[in-house]
């Protein structure tokens, strides 16, 4: 018998065999069409009863033949709607009460929320077909959505997820939408953001006065705001476009003047812009595109995907051009496809007048501030950036930047986990008490956790701006609302100056605050996302730019023997002075000169960083290093990458975070496979009375070899490739030593430096060849965007393990 015949037979079972059960479904089951799915399934199986949303999930009471009830329960998990994530299906037997039919009851807000809100999802194929169909009543409707797509997380104001608890509450449904909403056979049955041309929301286009940007923008007179915006983009304008999680600044990616103007207005330096392409064919000549990347680009999350540039792009006839100012010096292009109906309209439907086919889409904000979501703020804060505003009257309740993902070893690697993924929980291998982790100060993401679930917020940003700190507070409050977690404990980084930590101090309200060492948190995050339980220590390799060390130095080149309870510092990059803090981060040539001095090498003027350092600055820097003035010791691998980038003559000034390291990776990628002889770090045991790591990696031989290569005329690309090989080999050598002394065979690679896929893949390959199990980040970023996950697991486990780190 077929499945339909089996279910038909079950539906026809005699009433005398009836039983009744209350079934609770937990997971992402609200806002994804789950109640309509339950209604359809129960009706198909001849079951009676009802279903409702509660704070605990979707609850159904179903009555009918026991075999039909069993089939119903099985299919709840196996045939759930596309956006649903079923975590558990629990049932309780009830007394048979009789009745006819199956109903959807109003939602109940009883007790704390334990259900999960869906992330925002890209426009589905069925809605896209309606958008492009002139005969459909939602033809060209910029807010077209259904139960399988559209805004969720960014419009939810409370749970259970109902229209009254979203920013769509202000838009009464028209009669036709109301009929669809109430029809169990319709794709929009109980779709909370349901809308059409008649019931809103509404678009409008505002334009600035080019001669007086101090005046407020005025409404454009045209009847079609999207068509007018497309014309403005084609004419070289910069348009602020309101999306799902905030405003984007948009311009024609083929227009050199427009892209350069946007870069100048935003004080962007050389930091790459993201692109939105109408279709994959429009970027096929620009990048190397693998099947896994196609799946990411076309899936419901629609992140920005970092794609390797094609070596020598040759655009076929009619292919869109790309301005060189979009991503200067970057080995990748960040590309996404349209994920809202408005994006599809802006790029043009079939038959529309020609317009830009590739758009720059960058966050609508000033440097360092969170993405703008409020319409009035968009007009004021973006006044000197945009020429026009394509906006609408549906509020964004929570800012949510685009996610950024790249492929590494065939698996997704998050650079930023935000829209399309937040607030999906990360399962935990250990139970934690209700807790909030404040994350770090760069790429801030906070984390709420309870039991065996951790919810990370969307990307918040760098905490050095008041607007970002206010966004942090709103994100914390919103996440508490949608998860029902009421933190009993707070966790934060140990750095005394971190604003995230100071926020936690101000908001303890009698709750304990646990400070977690930066690199320990990185390693714990990698362990947690790979399901390692208590007493499962690892060799943790944590390479990044900055982390507050136990000795008050700036750590960042660390090898720790760690579990959730603690760590021992097994290895470190040798300390060198960090002269002037941020001034040196922005000027990598200073870091190169510092490392040359530490290696006993002269500042000869034939060396690129010496030539890049202004002559009047050199004696001042030398005196600063000699007298140790405003110099903190650092073991940062991120700063070492900066130094080598400058020494090789690749990047002397950094206009954005990690620019020098990105440029070094780009150069290495162009070197080919034959790198010639590599470089090698010196390894030596540290004196027992110094209080540092057991093993110290000295880069002095690396710098001496690079200087020799430079004077032999070796190309910068070869130097960059040899350095990457040297770092990967350093990790392997240190891990072999750690295995010999501790017996540990699992290595966790973490920290922002391992967002460099060339380094990460080479390192993982060497370690696996040497018999290690290698953990790399797949669910959260290796950078500080994943820090809060590690903080919460270290700080909030409900059953502490005694005996320290658990390694020799």
UniProtKB/TrEMBL annotation:
<dbReference type="InterPro" id="IPR036046">
    <property type="entry name" value="Acylphosphatase-like_dom_sf"/>
</dbReference>
<keyword id="KW-0479">Metal-binding</keyword>
<dbReference type="Pfam" id="PF07503">
    <property type="entry name" value="zf-HYPF"/>
</dbReference>
<dbReference type="Pfam" id="PF01300">
    <property type="entry name" value="Sua5_yciO_yrdC"/>
</dbReference>
<dbReference type="InterPro" id="IPR001792">
    <property type="entry name" value="Acylphosphatase-like_dom"/>
</dbReference>
<dbReference type="InterPro" id="IPR051060">
    <property type="entry name" value="Carbamoyltrans_HypF-like"/>
</dbReference>
<feature type="active site">
    <location>
        <position position="35"/>
    </location>
</feature>
<feature type="domain" description="YrdC-like">
    <location>
        <begin position="223"/>
        <end position="420"/>
    </location>
</feature>
<dbReference type="InterPro" id="IPR055128">
    <property type="entry name" value="HypF_C_2"/>
</dbReference>
<dbReference type="InterPro" id="IPR017945">
    <property type="entry name" value="DHBP_synth_RibB-like_a/b_dom"/>
</dbReference>
<comment type="pathway">
    <text>Protein modification; [NiFe] hydrogenase maturation.</text>
</comment>
<feature type="domain" description="Acylphosphatase-like">
    <location>
        <begin position="20"/>
        <end position="106"/>
    </location>
</feature>
<dbReference type="InterPro" id="IPR017968">
    <property type="entry name" value="Acylphosphatase_CS"/>
</dbReference>
<keyword id="KW-0862">Zinc</keyword>
<keyword id="KW-0436">Ligase</keyword>
<dbReference type="InterPro" id="IPR041440">
    <property type="entry name" value="HypF_C"/>
</dbReference>
<protein>
    <recommendedName>
        <fullName>Carbamoyltransferase</fullName>
        <ecNumber>6.2.-.-</ecNumber>
    </recommendedName>
</protein>
<keyword id="KW-0378">Hydrolase</keyword>
<dbReference type="Pfam" id="PF00708">
    <property type="entry name" value="Acylphosphatase"/>
</dbReference>
<comment type="similarity">
    <text>Belongs to the carbamoyltransferase HypF family.</text>
</comment>
<dbReference type="Pfam" id="PF22521">
    <property type="entry name" value="HypF_C_2"/>
</dbReference>
<dbReference type="InterPro" id="IPR006070">
    <property type="entry name" value="Sua5-like_dom"/>
</dbReference>
<dbReference type="Pfam" id="PF17788">
    <property type="entry name" value="HypF_C"/>
</dbReference>
<feature type="active site">
    <location>
        <position position="53"/>
    </location>
</feature>
<dbReference type="InterPro" id="IPR004421">
    <property type="entry name" value="Carbamoyltransferase_HypF"/>
</dbReference>
<keyword id="KW-0863">Zinc-finger</keyword>
<dbReference type="InterPro" id="IPR011125">
    <property type="entry name" value="Znf_HypF"/>
</dbReference>
């Amino acid at each position: 018998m077929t499945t339909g015949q089996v279910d038909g037979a079950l539906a026809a079972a005699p009433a005398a065999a009836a039983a009744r059960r209350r079934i609770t479904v937990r997971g992402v089951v609200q806002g994804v069409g789950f109640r309509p799915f339950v209604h359809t399934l129960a009706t198909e199986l001849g079951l009676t009863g009802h279903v409702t949303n509660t704070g605990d999930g979707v609850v159904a009471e179903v009555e009918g033949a026991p075999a039909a009830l069993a089939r119903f329960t099985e299919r709840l998990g196996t045939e759930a709607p596309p956006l649903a994530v079923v975590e558990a299906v629990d049932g309780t037997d009830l007394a048979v009460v009789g009745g006819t039919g199956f109903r959807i009851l109003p939602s109940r807000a009883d007790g704390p929320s334990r259900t999960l809100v869906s992330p925002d999802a890209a426009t589905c194929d069925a809605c896209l077909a309606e958008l492009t169909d002139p005969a459909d009543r939602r033809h060209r409707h910029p807010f077209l959505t259904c139960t399988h797509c559209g805004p969720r997380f960014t419009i939810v104001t409370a749970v259970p997820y109902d229209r009254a608890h979203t920013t769509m509450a202000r838009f009464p449904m028209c009669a036709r939408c109301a009929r669809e909403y109430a029809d169990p056979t319709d794709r929009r049955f109980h779709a909370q953001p349901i809308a059409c041309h008649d019931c809103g929301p509404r678009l409008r286009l505002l334009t600035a006065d080019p001669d007086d940007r101090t005046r407020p923008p005025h409404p454009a007179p045209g009847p079609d705001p999207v068509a007018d915006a497309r014309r403005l983009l084609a004419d070289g304008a910069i348009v602020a476009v309101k999306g799902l999680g905030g405003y984007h600044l948009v311009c024609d990616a083929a227009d050199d003047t427009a892209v350069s103007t946007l870069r100048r207005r935003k004080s962007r330096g050389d930091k790459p812009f993201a692109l939105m392409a109408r279709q994959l064919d429009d970027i096929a000549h620009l990048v190397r595109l693998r099947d896994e990347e196609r799946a990411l680009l076309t899936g419901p999350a629609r992140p920005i995907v970092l794609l390797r540039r094609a070596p020598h792009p040759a655009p076929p006839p009619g292919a869109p051009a790309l301005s060189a100012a979009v991503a200067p010096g970057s080995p990748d292009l960040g590309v996404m496809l349209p994920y809202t109906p408005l994006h599809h309209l802006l790029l043009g439907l079939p038959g529309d007048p020609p317009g830009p086919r590739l758009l720059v889409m960058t966050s609508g904000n000033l440097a360092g501030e969170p993405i703008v979501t409020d319409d009035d703020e968009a007009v004021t804060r973006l006044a000197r950036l945009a020429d026009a505003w394509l906006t609408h009257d549906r509020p964004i309740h929570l800012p949510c930047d685009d996610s950024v993902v790249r492929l590494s070893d065939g698996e997704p690697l998050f650079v930023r986990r935000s829209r399309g993924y937040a607030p999906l929980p990360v399962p935990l291998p250990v139970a934690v008490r209700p807790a909030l982790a404040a994350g770090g100060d760069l790429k801030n993401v906070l984390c709420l956790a309870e039991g065996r679930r951790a919810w990370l917020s969307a990307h918040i940003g760098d905490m050095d701006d008041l607007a970002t700190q206010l966004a942090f507070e709103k994100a914390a409050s919103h996440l508490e609302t949608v998860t029902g977690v009421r933190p009993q404990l707070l966790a934060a980084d140990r750095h005394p100056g971190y604003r995230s930590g100071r926020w936690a101090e101000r908001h303890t309200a009698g709750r304990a605050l646990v400070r977690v060492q930066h690199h320990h948190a990185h390693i714990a995050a990698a362990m947690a996302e790979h399901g390692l339980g208590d007493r499962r220590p690892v060799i943790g390799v944590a390479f990044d730019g900055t982390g507050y060390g136990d000795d008050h130095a700036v750590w960042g080149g660390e090898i720790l023997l760690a579990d959730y309870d603690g760590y021992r510092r097994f290895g470190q990059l040798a300390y060198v002075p960090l002269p002037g803090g941020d001034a040196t981060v922005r000027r990598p040539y200073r870091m190169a000169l510092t490392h040359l001095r530490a290696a006993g090498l002269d500042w000869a003027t034939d060396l690129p960083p010496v030539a890049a350092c202004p002559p009047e600055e050199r004696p001042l820097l030398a005196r600063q290093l000699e007298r140790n003035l405003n110099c903190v010791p650092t073991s940062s691998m991120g700063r070492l990458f900066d130094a080598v980038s400058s020494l090789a003559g690749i990047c002397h000034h950094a206009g954005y975070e990690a620019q020098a390291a990105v440029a070094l990776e780009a150069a290495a990628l162009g070197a080919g496979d034959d790198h010639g002889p590599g470089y090698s770090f010196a390894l030596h045991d540290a004196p027992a009375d110094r209080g540092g790591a057991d093993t110290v990696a000295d880069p002095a031989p690396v710098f001496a070899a690079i200087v020799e290569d430079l004077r032999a005329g070796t190309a910068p690309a070869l130097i960059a490739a040899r350095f990457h090989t040297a770092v990967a080999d350093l990790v392997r050598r240190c891990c072999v030593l750690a295995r010999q002394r501790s017996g540990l065979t699992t290595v966790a690679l973490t920290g922002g430096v391992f967002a460099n896929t060339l380094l990460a893949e080479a390192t993982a390959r060497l370690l696996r060849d040497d018999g290690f199990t290698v953990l790399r980040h797949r669910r959260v970023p290796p950078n500080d965007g994943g820090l809060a996950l590690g903080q919460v697991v270290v700080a909030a486990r409900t059953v502490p393990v005694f005996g320290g780190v658990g390694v020799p």
